[in-house]
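Structure, all two chains, one model.
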Amino acid sequence: MNENKFCTYKSHSDPGPGDGGRTGSWRVVRPVIDREKCLPCKKNKQTCFICWLLCPDGVVSKTVPPGIDLEYCKGCGICAEECPVGAIEMVEETSIAQEESQDASCY
Amino acid sequence: MHHVIESGNVAAAHGVRLSRAQVIAAYPITPQTPLTEKLSEFVESDQLQAEYIPVESEHSALSVCIAASSAGARSFTATSANGLLYMNEQLHWAAGARLPIVMCVVNRGVGAPWTIWNDHQDSISQRDTGWIQLYVCDHQQIADTVIKAFYLAEAVSIPVMVCYDGYILSHTYMPFQVAEKEEVDEFLPRFSPNYALDPLNPANLNTVTLPDCREDIRGEKAPGYMEIRHDLHSDLRRSLDVWTDIEDKFLHKFGRGGSACLEKYQCEDAENIVVCMGSLSYQFRDVVDMLRDRGYSVGVAGIRIYRPFPDQAIREQLSRAKGLLVFEKALSYGNQGALASDIKSVLYSCSSKPFVQSYVLGLGGRQIKTQDLLGAVENFCTGNFAEDNLHWLGLQI
């Protein structure tokens, strides 16, 4: 009996970015940061980062300004809800797409 | 090796002890049996070095076994009836996660109305969970099959249910042989999974799997849900050969057992063959003897493994008969006996097939009288019965 012949496929993977697939494609609203209000931007130093701390998918970077990896951001809106200064707005992806296509048609 | 006269539950507990199970999780009260009490005694008295975890439900019992098995521990649980039904979600999970857990199912009827007595409805209704199901006929087979079940489960990475009749086997006392630890150690390999939970080597197990295959973080194509399920099914089909090898190996080592798929009695020249599962097939041996004395050419075949279904063995060994009488203590409600329809489906491809009659009997512990079995088989042999989709035996109203 060759035990290795059995159980060729099972759900086992190494942890890492994107193991759950490109979850950014699920998003219908996109977090957009207003740098006029965002504390790290305003103070130009490492501070606050509540969005980084609470993002369930770990897609917010602890940088000035904070970056959001849209490849994996599902658009849950927790960052916008928790931002103490209301610097994050959830914008409809459809309106962003419309704007982009209008921009493209100008050329 | 030594002989004892004990209950079927104690036979099962000896099997678990000799297999050196490392984690045992069980819900301790109804519908539980003294099997787990005996195991806690073995652990308490150091006859078995295992972690015994009493839990608040059967769902949790199997969850603990899933976690323990993922961590590389040989894991065991036991239940009956509604307790098995309460595990249902985790039964599918254990099979899909390919964890070689062994569980004794002490077969009982399920409510409503409330019953505690024997039939097979509990395990039969779990036939599509992806577990291997073995059925046993006596105390010796209980003790031996638990050991073989660990071997099988770990060889094919699929969990195994060892099903034995509640009360008829679980609470009656019969003589059986208890093997020595050293003998079993020589027979049963150590459990060494390819991966066990390890903080230094973390892994994602059974996470959300999208409908299509995709690349993993190394850029290699990872299986999707459908590939993983296809693998479970094809491994279940192939595990029939592994089970046959294990039976042969056990027979060679211990000098007993050896019937992997069908346990036949007087079947070689039989015109009509009774097919059933569990202890009922041994009760039928008396019926076969009596009918042979009256000149009827009959035999009985006990199905030892129900999932994966031994289709090839049935086609090769039973399709030459004129009639098959399938007696079941369970029912696919609204259709017929589940075993009967399975048997009909495997015979469909045979050029000449036996007539298959489905009987249901013994539900909720209704007494199965040898005289009634004799009458039913004799009526079938003489053609003195109404052909119907399902014949109920032993109804009192």
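Chain B has a mean pLDDT of 96.
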